[in-house]
């Protein structure tokens, strides 16, 4: 079962999107909606937690890439939690996205990055 949950923490400088389940063409619209809601809050950082992702298809990569680009265009930062081993890490590392995105192995490090304004 796919879930994309948005938790607003704009007072702390970030909004979190927790994603669980399979991310593919069937769940792309829900993920896009969650990421757009997070961006609409206007916080300087968005934390995208992919820890609970069981399958991460190209559709999911595209959604996250668009959100990262939109946030960077307005001077913000996206922090992506993508632990290894894991389904999301496998795809992110194969595509070399850890060199383009701010990828963290755990939630605590990502939260610290968000709160530090990185």
TrEMBL record:
SUPFAM superfamilies: SpoIIaa-like
Domain STAS: 4-114
PROSITE patterns per record: STAS
CDD domains, alphabetized: STAS_anti-anti-sigma_factors
Protein name, as recorded: Anti-anti-sigma factor
Species annotation: Pseudonocardia cypriaca
Organism ancestry: Bacteria, Bacillati, Actinomycetota, Actinomycetes, Pseudonocardiales
